[in-house]
Design a protein that fits this description.
flat; Rossmann fold; Calcium-transporting ATPase, cytoplasmic domain N; Calcium-transporting ATPase, cytoplasmic transduction domain A
Length: 1262
């Protein structure tokens, strides 16, 4: 049944009807209409695929009532027939006497009449963190039932003690049963996205049907007189052109991809459309216990609990060896005390002490802490001997005369990251309010710690100013605290006043209250999100537009009622969800805008076909290929788009802000619906109608006045499909793409022998462009037979098809331009856009240029790719227009930005500074490595060039040039460039190595003295600035000349070589390694392989020298060379040997540099250590370098430019590989030699530093 519901959506129904019509035509004329069966099959297939994808992706389990049953204990102990029996909990009746023990689940709502140290966990029902004490009260409790000390509720856990109770409510009448009925009575709400997509589908489908029927009638009266089959096919083409067939699948898949991304961040989405709903939130109502706080008590200097507890222990003192220690509610404990402890001495309680006590107590209580008082009584030995038996029933222990010790405070602290998360949500324009069952003061205290309340309430402002609360007006305060007891008496205008506040806290609320709060907020137009973890939250979770439950601390009921679950209970994940929701809305909008942009260039040709008439520029089946081919792929690629700016989406107001204007609009809309007899105020469905009746009502909706009044009513809301989107898709981009398609259409026809007028005349005649058509004689006297007419028509259709595709390739980036231009870095950063274009290009050319497919799709492989330039030009025009739109619309987008909120306590920016320091040190390290690597290859080149001089010079060792300038450039700009870049992804050699080193420019006595000497030298230089070598009064040109002259001055070299403790980017150690140590190793490697290659080609080193000294060899037309072995080497072999030698040096440098990549990184660890070789991009760089090196040397056509020889044997590579290993060995030796100097730069441990918890680290490691 669910699959049928998905199948019978508006788009799918239209496709199925259109497909069935094509098959009906077979009954009219089987032979003539057989080709239409392809179209019919595709249309019905698309509908089925859309329904299947939707069905598969949107399935979810609904087991709320089952989870409630799971909470009820299967059995319980009850008194029956005078004995204790174990019976099924479902068999309990009112009046049964039940025995409760530690670890039991309460089977019903019980009135306690006997107990022993009974404590119950009510957190999932009332939100109270710590176990609550329960005991009999013969005269009853004055508190609300939810707080009564003599009641325990169904499903609550007994954590301590035992008790006897009478069942007062069972089954559905219990407290939890009432919650279940509240939850079960709430129907699932449609998400804002579902409502908007539904409205868009109805509008588009209505327009498509109207146009199809209208042009069916026009076609039947004009072009297709008496041709029913052709007219039906034409109407189907209109329908197909209007309906974006792939859109339902694209929307579902986009949401699925976003849901997977959120799952990776520990946010489980049960309802796909909930992904977007989270981004649409205007109000987030959150529970306190377990959601914002940890639901665990933490010891602080002060705290609270209820009643009192006494323990007697053996503690020797001056008067005896027993002591009584008392803890409990501070007022109860203080009432039992006559003295207080100060500096180890008991002092009588005075008024001054009571004042100090009250201040301390109120201080902690106002911050939401549980405060308990502590006292002691040193029991006298003569009255309480060591073997004294204490009993609580006989009260044979002291009940007064205690010495007050102090107050202890326990706090349920906020979770880490909650404060920053709420701050971020508020900056995103989302109103965050707390709805809790806890005490008002506790709730307010927590709210002020977590950015939820920053301003003053009437109560706090009264306390601060001394004015009576009655004299403080509502507009003077931005925050409000509401007690649950006051909610039942509130009127409508008071609710409006509450939600008009920026900061709201509801305390002491019941599940019914939470549900009412959600309903009232929704009535004002808020898109409400509710977070919670308890059973008491489940009704509100289900009623909300988006329910968010906690996984670890959450009950099964709350998780089933919610649309979304935070797997790690991290409230901060909500922020990621909001950002993801806003992004997916943005990307969905782009995808829809992109998808429907090609509707106009598809529809206009259909209209021209009937009205003008012109040959059909694009067929229905090619439209389907567009919609279900490259548009489907490219529409999906928007799922991976990133925001145009870092925090742009999270500083915008919600897309459906609640304003006075929006509230008025909502009330008008509700009034219109209520006036419509039998219609629900929230929807256009009849309240008592069957499912079929409701479906019919939805079909009729577009033809009602109410529908269009709702649609075109002015609001401040941003819709998924709004006027701006439709204007761009159908008018702006649509017209540009239409002109592009028609232009290339007429150009192709003109090339095939038809002017635009002749195309019109031929189509008007009604006998051309079909099989067996008569010859057409054009104005130039050319005779065009039927075959050429059909081919020209096929080429024209193919050109329009490809025109739409090419325009859409540019449109992918044009629709993304909102804050930045369409060629900005972020706009083009999505690689999947280019993958989609590649797939689209492959599909487009495959369909058009594959002859066997022409039977189904039409098309012609004779179409010249030259015609593609026309739509490409219009594609560029699209980007230009998109850029103009960015400039025109920028101001309106800026107006939607949320202003800064004064007083927000956000992330500790200093922690980010630490990361910045670490990143800065790492980039310096990596820059140094990169420079060292690049300089090393340059040094090898330079040394090779210095040794190899021309014969005309008077240098002692003239040898043939071992490496040419162009090969040096290939090294520097080829693999050296790639490998140098890969150092950017290097990690530190140890976890904290860089962060335990002293700064590279430490301030020491030596460095200060050096700085003073440097300044003195510059001051002595007449007219020179003390801070630089520029002349103080010189012009810009003069200063530039001075900088050029600087290396030839004494001051420059004094500054350069002055001894300091500073580490420079390019220092002596780096230069020594690059030019002397590794540089010499690489040079020897290159020269060795150079002479070995020459020797293999017939030249000993002496003969190479003699030949070069002669000055006539190793050039074209050189005389033959006779070596010492009598071999005659002609000019061709001389040149080839010279080319091989140069190639061997080039490859030697490359191979050595491959080893050097790891050698330069060895500083703290050896070059073959795990961290040194962990950068995968080093290996990618080596791979690219190897490909480039072998390509240059072993590709004969490139020898004209680069030299090289493909005759060079790879065996020679072993020589530089051996020297590469030598480089690694030398680098290892350097690590050992320099380790002591690096250790001297390490900062020693600082005594007393309080760092990260050591125990936590130890537990993780072990």
């Amino acid at each position: 049944m669910k699959f049928i519901d998905r199948l019978l959506t508006m788009f799918n129904l239209l496709l199925i009807v259109a497909g069935i019509l094509e098959y009906i035509l077979l009954g009219i004329d089987f032979k003539a209409n057989f080709a239409n069966t392809y179209l019919g099959a595709i249309l019905i297939g698309v509908a089925l695929i859309n329904a299947f994808i939707d069905f598969y992706q949107l399935q979810k389990s609904e087991a709320i009532l089952a989870s409630f049953l799971a909470m009820i204990p299967p059995t319980c102990r009850v008194v029956r027939d005078g004995t204790i029996k174990s019976i099924a909990a479902a068999g309990l009746v009112k009046g049964d006497i039940v025995l409760l023990r530690s670890g039991d689940k309460t089977p019903a709502d019980l009135l306690i009449f006997a107990s022993s140290e009974l404590k119950v966990d009510n957190s999932s029902l009332t939100g109270e963190s710590e176990p609550q004490e329960r005991f009999p009260m013969p005269h009853g409790s004055q508190l609300r039932p939810a707080e009564a000390e003599n009641l325990t509720f169904n499903s609550t856990l007994i954590v301590n003690g035992e008790a006897w109770g009478i069942a007062v409510r069972t089954g559905d009448n219990t407290f939890i049963g009432q919650i279940a009925s509240l939850t079960g009575s709430e129907s699932d709400n449609k998400s804002p996205l579902a409502v908007e997509i539904g409205a868009f589908v109805i509008i588009l489908s209505t327009i498509a049907v109207i146009f199809a029927i209208a042009f069916f009638a026009v076609g039947l009266a004009t072009v297709y007189k008496g041709k029913i089959a052709a007219t039906v096919t034409f109407a189907v083409s209109i329908l197909v052109a209007f309906v974006p067939e792939g859109l339902p699948s694209v929307v579902t898949l986009l949401l699925s991809i976003a849901a997977k991304r959120m799952a990776a961040q520990n946010v489980l989405v049960k309802d796909l459309q909930g992904v977007e709903t989270l981004g649409s939130l205007t109000l987030l109502a959150t529970d306190k216990t377990g959601t914002l706080t940890r639901n665990q008590m933490t010891v602080f200097p002060f705290n609270s609990t209820n009643k009192w507890a006494l323990v007697v222990l053996k503690k020797t003192h001056a008067n005896g060896c027993l002591s009584a220690l008392l803890k409990g509610a501070p007022e109860r404990v203080l009432a039992k005390c006559t003295t207080y402890l100060k500096d180890g001495t008991a002092i009588p309680i005075t008024d001054e002490f009571r004042k100090a006590y009250d201040e301390a107590y109120n201080y902690m209580a106002s911050r939401g802490h549980r405060v308990i008082g502590c006292a002691q009584n040193l029991l006298p030995g003569e009255q309480y001997a060591v073997d004294h038996v204490f009993t609580k029933n006989d009260l044979n222990y002291p009940s007064e005369g205690y010495c007050f010790i102090g107050l202890v405070s326990l706090e349920d602290p906020p979770k880490h990251g909650v404060r920053e998360a709420i701050g971020t949500l508020r900056l995103a324009g989302i109103k965050v309010m707390m709805v809790t069952g806890d005490h008002p003061k506790t709730a307010e205290a927590i709210a002020r710690k977590i950015n939820l309340v920053l301003g003053e309430t009437r109560e706090s402002l009264s306390a601060k100013t001394g004015r009576p609360i009655e004299e403080i007006y509502e507009d003077e305060t931005s925050a409000i605290m509401i007690h649950g007891d006051d909610l039942d008496s509130l009127e409508g205008w008071q609710w409006d006043q509450i939600f008009n506040k920026q900061e709201i806290v509801f305390a002491r609320t019941t599940p019914k209250h939470k549900l009412e709060i959600v309903k009232r907020a929704q009535a004002l137009g808020h898109v409400v999100g509710v977070t919670g973890d308890g059973v008491n939250d489940s009704p509100a979770l289900k009623k909300a537009d988006l329910g968010i439950a906690m996984n670890i601390s959450g009950s099964d009921v709350s998780k089933e009622a919610a649309n979304m679950i935070l797997l790690d209970d991290n409230f901060a994940s909500t922020v990621k969800g909001v950002a993801e929701g806003r992004l997916i809305f943005n990307n969905l909008k782009r995808s829809i805008q992109y998808t429907i942009s090609h509707s106009t260039p598809e529809i206009i040709p259909q209209l021209l076909y009937v009205v003008v008439p012109l040959p059909l520029a694009i067929s229905a089946i090619l439209i389907l290929v567009i919609d279900l081919g490259f548009d489907l792929f490219m529409g999906l690629t928007f799922a991976w788009d990133k925001p145009e700016s870092d925090d742009g989406l999270m500083r915008l107001k919600p897309r459906k802000p609640v304003t006075d204007r929006s509230i008025l609009s909502l009330k008008r809309r509700a009034l219109r619906r209520v006036k419509t007899i039998g219609m629900d105020a929230e929807s256009q469905d009849r309240t008592s109608a069957s499912k079929i009746r409701r479906f019919i009502e939805r079909l009729k909706a577009p033809f009602t006045k109410v529908f269009w009044q709702d649609l075109f009513e002015e609001t401040d809301h941003e819709k998924l499909v709004d006027r701006g989107l439709l204007s761009y898709a159908y008018l702006e981009a649509g017209i540009i793409e239409t002109i592009s398609g028609l232009l290339v259409y007429f150009v192709v026809f003109w090339k095939c022998g038809f002017t635009p007028a002749e195309v019109w005349n031929a189509q008007k005649a009604g006998v051309y462009f079909v099989e067996g058509a008569p010859n057409f004689v054009n104005s130039r006297g050319q005779v065009i037979d039927a075959a050429h007419q059909l081919d020209g028509f096929a080429q024209a259709q193919s050109s329009v098809y490809l025109s739409i595709f090419i325009n859409q390739c540019f449109n992918v980036f044009a629709v993304k331009a909102k804050l930045t231009f369409p060629f900005g870095r972020r706009v083009v950063s999505n690689k999947w856009n280019f993958v989609g274009i590649l797939i689209g290009a492959s599909l487009g050319t495959f369909v058009i240029y594959t002859p066997p497919l022409h039977i189904v799709f039409g098309g012609s492989h004779h179409l010249l790719p030259l015609y593609w330039l026309i739509p490409a030009a219009f594609g560029i025009l699209l980007l230009i227009w998109a850029s103009i739109r960015v400039i025109l619309l920028r101001k309106s987008i800026q107006d939607k930005t949320v202003k800064d909120i004064k007083g927000l306590m956000m992330y500790d920016n200093f922690a980010s500074t630490v990361k910045g320091v670490a990143e800065g040190r790492l980039i310096f390290n990596n820059l140094k490595r990169s420079i060292q690597s690049v300089l090393l290859s340059d040094s090898s080149n330079q040394e090779a060039c210095l040794i190899n001089c021309t014969a005309s010079s008077d240098v002692v060792v003239p040898l043939p040039l071992a490496i040419s300038a162009i090969l040096i450039l290939v090294i520097d700009l080829g693999f050296d460039l790639f490998m140098g870049l890969t150092f950017a992804w290097d990690k530190p050699e140890s976890d904290d190595g860089l962060m335990r080193l002293k700064p590279r420019k430490p301030v020491t006595d030596r460095s200060i003295l050096s700085l003073k000497r440097r300044a003195l030298r510059r001051v002595k230089t007449i007219g020179m600035d003390a801070e630089s070598q520029d002349r103080t009064s010189a012009s810009k040109i003069r200063r530039f000349i001075e900088r050029l002259k600087a290396p030839f001055t004494k001051v420059f070299w004094q500054d350069l070589f002055e001894e300091t403790d500073h580490e420079k980017l390019v220092d002596r150690g780096l230069l020594s390694y690059a030019y002397l140590e590794a540089g010499i190793i690489e040079t020897i490697s290159g020269l060795l392989v150079y002479f070995v290659v020459f020797w293999k080609c017939g030249f000993t080193p002496a003969e190479v020298w003699n030949a070069q000294k002669a000055g006539v060899y190793f050039v074209e037309g050189a005389p033959n060379f006779v070596n010492s072995r009598g071999q005659v080497i002609d000019a061709a072999h001389q040149l080839d040997g010279f080319a091989q030698a140069q190639s061997s040096v080039y490859l030697s440098i490359f191979i050595n540099q491959c080893f050097n990549v790891f050698a330069v990184k060895a500083k703290l660890t050896f070059p073959f250590g795990r961290r040194v070789v962990s950068n995968k991009w080093n290996f990618v760089g080596i791979l690219i370098g190897a490909s480039l090196g072998t390509f240059v040397i072993y590709t004969p056509p490139l020898h004209i430019v680069f030299g090289g020889s493909h005759h060079l044997l790879p065996l020679y590579w072993l020589i530089p590989a051996a020297f590469g290993i030598l480089l690694l060995i030398w680098a290892s030796i350097r690590v050992i030699l320099l380790r002591k100097s690096i250790q001297d730069k390490t900062v020693k441990d600082i005594k007393g530093l309080m760092m990260f918890p050591t125990m936590r680290t130890m537990s993780v490691k072990h």
